[in-house]
Predict the 3D structure of the following.
Amino acid sequence: MAKKSINEKCYVYINGKILGYVKDGRAYSDEVRKARRSGLLSGEVNVSYVKRLNAVHINTDNGRIRKPYIIVENGKSKFTSELREKLAKKEIDFAYLLRHGIIEYLDAEEEENALVVFHENEIANDTTHLEVDMTSIFGFTLNASPFPEHNNAARHAMLSNFIKQAQGLYATNFNLRFDSRSYLLFYPQKPIVSTAVYQAANMPKHPSGQNFVVALTTYYGYNMADAVVLNKGAVDRGLGRSMFYKMYSDEERRYPGGQKDIFRIPPATAEGYLGEHAYSKLSEDGIIEPETIVDEGDVLIGKVAPPRFLEESISAGGLEEKIRDDSTTLKAGEKGIVDSVIFTESTGATKVVKVRIKSLRVPEKGDKFASRQGQKGVAAYIVPQEDMPFNEQGIVPDLLLNPHSVPNRLTFGHLLEEIAGKAGALSGKIIDGTAFAEKGSKRIEDYGKILEEHGFDKFGDEVLYDGITGRKFRAKIFNGVVYYNRLYHMVSNKLQVRSRGPVQILTHQPTEGKARQGGLRFGEMERDVLVGYGASLLLKERLLDQSDKASVLVCKSCGNIGYYDYIKRTVVCPICGGTSIAEVEISYAFKLLLDEIKSMHIFPALKMKE
């Protein structure tokens, strides 16, 4: 006996709401599709029949991801060779194909009812659709990377993120924009190995990387694991050099009662006055001027504000209103040059000032680089050019990548790009690295031929010489050109240090994070290491002396925390009234715990040992 569906009746849902029911769900969904293809229904409508639930789902809501497919009917593609020729001659366009039911968009739910093939020669009797292009299974970021079909799938997710994080020419009007933070690469280049999607999206106008000469070799252990070694000569000539922009802004707010903020240099009588030196770089109107060199703690926008609470101080002149300093200062650990200052108005007609700070970022140890194959790496050493390996022509690589990083991560696209980039650099042509080359195309052999024509080994291997000793390396070293991105994870933005600084009011422990001049968390697992080594005094210093040590008075008779009575000049226990009290050093967080337990009407007694 055939297995029955969950529902006897076939319900029809529109955007998740029941509309009614039909006799035959499959025939009904086919009818809706036919109406859509003939133009009776909008092309935005998608329909799917769910056999397991015996239900038809029709979706028309926004936010669905949809993808174009060529319709296949009776075992033949509707996109004929005549239409292909007309499209090539630009007699028709993509919209024509949509209107005439040649191509349709499917959403994720309707794709479940489709049987799609990649190539026309694979069409069978039950095929419903044909892919418009093989590469359309990838998104834009993945299609911007060459040879993605040769890489491990896990790297695809990574490289998609890296492409988004790359520094480059993000907008052509960058000098007019006041973004909160932005990065601008000085000498961005078009990639030698490009893809069809990259070209179609006009990305060469907004490049975000540079073509590096890369050799796959170790360098005295400096590029272990993911680390990379950079050539100082290349860095000095502008490799990976960028500018970092940060914007600070403030406005003259209005308050109830007719009070308002005023942009000006705060007077010495203002509450929270920072001292004369802090305001020394401001002009007369209280705003810093362009091209001023600024350092942490310098005031950028001078502003005075009314007091937070309604209070008046009576001075010799009668009633005088207190004012407080509410200036904008450069954050700790930052420095740079004032690039631009603008005055504008908010929607509430209050004056707004925006100050943009720029700082030059030359690649240094700790800066992150990544290729378009998800091969990320942090610069571990920047070697003087004379110490770098070189080939017979005297070419010195810009970057040395550890050879173990390719087979481990299965990023063979990286090797292909290296050979293709080298062939492109020698022939002066842009190489096409679009995914899924046409059947029968021999890309690798073609690149090898170009290399051989220019006197290089067809596999990209070269004889290199050690820059320090001048000796020839025994093994040939794989060498080529790869498009690398400099990512916005720069060590100068993340560097933080603390000796003494602010603490949290609640727990008396140091604050967290770079913005609050915080420390680094010494967690439970770090504590286990010190416990394992038996370094008990170091453990006490880290977790008590350098953190939240507090002296408390504990009653010897009842175990409660006492206090010092300044009037009677004696120590007192608030519960038993005893005066036999000892001073104990505990963590303030523990004292807080005791207080929280007391708030739940539980009395925690501290027993004292002699």
